[in-house]
TrEMBL record:
PANTHER family: BIFUNCTIONAL PROTEIN HLDE. It is an enzyme of class 2 (transferase). Catalyzes the ADP transfer from ATP to D-glycero-beta-D-manno-heptose 1-phosphate, yielding ADP-D-glycero-beta-D-manno-heptose. PROSITE patterns: PFKB_KINASES_1. The active site is at residue 275. The gene is hldE. Its EC number is 2.7.1.167, 2.7.7.70. It holds the Pfam family CTP_transf_like. One of its GO terms (biological process) is lipopolysaccharide core region biosynthetic process. Residues 358-491 are annotated as: Cytidylyltransferase. Homodimer. It comes from Pseudorhodoplanes sinuspersici. This is Bifunctional protein HldE.
Length: 491
């Protein structure tokens, strides 16, 4: 199970290769207060403008903003927009850009006119020539890719159908990356998805999925069925469908489809949100995260960037706080001794469609094994509830000299962890009654248990939930720590 808390800090050690259609995004902001006397068109009084790296370049920016290194390969024209992009990429310390110059075509540029007051797009003007790169440019792009491949942990193809990712280039990149044993993630475009066959992960939106399978997809079942068909036809490991405000759906080989809802956020601008999603997916897979964990991280990142104006990026701290929102709460807000408050907390999460997880224990002396296990447990769900044995319960289970710390102290220490969303104290010897009340979708325990040994497994499974066993860190035991400390005290 992927450990978000530990692994996000490791992003600075990974490198992602990004290949795709580079663009210059130009945002012109102003106010509209009148209609032109020359034609029935609004007049925008320009207040400011902003030029940013767009298209596949925005994928590279997002990879870099997460703290990872990015090698970017793209194509520009011999013009002012191309020179602007070269300078902008050179100013990014975590991006190493190799740009092929083709003087026969313009650099793709998009100018968006945006109402400053209402944060709405009024008009977009495009400068582009969407045709496949010629043989000379294609050869130069491939040479850059093959030279960079040994230095990277993952490859992402960001296809905007402007000509960089030709059929031959896509095929050769996928084959070379697969032969190197590295994941290749594709943000696709067009109707012929056969060109992406053999990729690790393909990420269409719902409209693109519909076009790829040549049928309408509306419901969760439609999306899942279409994604299963697409995954099979492309012989890829997984398909992830982005569904705007309806969240995301993941289909993996030999696994049931998984759907996650979108976060409830105020949307300011959706420009570039797809770039952020594919950037986070590629960074997570570079860390060897599982597909579901990568999807959850990407879903959280999308919620951050749609709340920003323009072509935006997400930072590692923003991603951490979105994935682990309990980190922003005071410890006392996360502790419940009175179960009467539990229903309201759970109802709010369920209304958002969040996957509730549960684990439990005495946690008498918190040690690294506990912390790692809880971080892995949190990765298996959207919200993690921890059932904590009361002092009387611990004494019955561990003996009259335990617990070492009282329940208030234990609860406060646990509530301080980012991985924990709620600590609920129970008096019984087992958490069966608490599990029956919470009815979590996933029940998590350490791998020293079997599924049948996990208390409450039959309750959760009867509701269609699952039991997840997470790995333990060897050499850590509260009982051993207590014995050693008491032995030392006697000596």
């Amino acid at each position: 199970m992927f450990d978000f808390d530990h692994s996000l800090s490791q992003l600075s050690g990974v490198t992602v290769l990004c290949i795709g259609d580079l663009m210059l995004d130009d945002f012109v902001y102003g106010d509209v207060a009148r209609i032109s006397p020359e034609a029935p068109a609004p007049v925008i009084a320009v207040k400011r403008s902003e030029m940013v790296i767009g298209g596949a370049g925005n994928v590279a920016r997002n990879i870099a903003s997460l703290g990872a290194q990015c090698i970017f390969i793209g194509l520009v024209g011999e013009d002012d927009a191309g020179r602007t992009l070269k300078a902008a990429l050179a100013a990014e310390p975590r991006i190493e850009a190799s740009l092929v110059v083709d003087g026969s075509r313009p650099t793709t540029r998009k100018v968006r006119f945006v109402s400053e007051h209402y944060a709405t797009h009024m008009l977009r003007a495009d400068w582009e020539e969407a045709r496949p790169a010629d043989a000379k440019a294609e050869k130069a792009l491939l040479e850059h890719v093959l030279a960079a491949l040994p230095r990277v942990d993952a490859v992402v193809l960001s296809d905007y159908a402007k000509g960089v990712l030709t059929k031959d280039l896509i095929r050769q990149v996928i084959e070379a990356t697969s032969a190197a044993g590295k994941p290749v993630i594709v943000d696709p475009k067009g109707k012929d998805y056969s060109i992406y066959r053999g990729a690790t992960l393909v990420t269409p939106n719902r409209k693109e999925l519909s076009e790829a399978v040549h049928r309408d997809v509306w419901s969760d079942a439609d999306v899942a069925a279409a994604a299963i068909d697409l995954r099979s036809s492309l012989q890829c490991e997984a398909v992830l469908v982005t569904r705007s405000d309806e969240g995301m759906t993941l289909v993996e080989r030999d696994a049931d489809p998984v759907h996650v809802p979108s976060y409830a956020v105020k949307i300011s601008d959706v420009s570039g949100a797809g770039d952020t999603v594919v950037a986070v997916l590629s960074a997570m897979l570079a860390l060897r995260a599982d597909f579901e964990s990568a999807m959850r991280a990407a879903n959280a990142a999308a919620a951050v960037v749609v709340g920003k104006r323009g072509t935006a990026t997400v930072s590692i701290n923003e991603l951490r706080h979105r994935i682990l929102p309990a980190a922003t709460l005071a410890a006392e807000e996360k502790i419940l001794f009175d179960w009467s408050e539990l229903d309201a907390r759970l109802a709010a999460w369920r209304k958002q469609g969040l996957r509730i997880g549960f684990t439990n224990g005495c946690f008498d002396i918190l040690h690294p094994g506990h912390v790692r296990m809880l971080a892995q447990a949190r990765a298996a769900c959207d919200r993690l509830v921890l059932g904590l044995n009361s002092d009387e319960s611990v004494s019955r289970l561990k003996g009259p000299e335990r617990p070492v710390q009282n329940v208030q102290s234990r609860a406060e220490v646990l509530a301080a962890l980012e991985a924990i969303d709620l600590v609920v104290v129970f008096e019984e010897d087992t958490p069966r009654d608490l599990i029956a009340k919470i009815r979590p979708r996933v029940l998590i325990k350490g791998a020293d248990y079997t599924r049948e040994q996990v208390v409450g497994h039959e309750i959760v499974e009867a509701d269609g939930g699952e039991v997840v066993l997470v790995g333990l860190v060897p050499g850590h035991s509260t009982t051993d720590i207590v014995k050693r400390s008491r032995s030392t005290a006697k000596n």
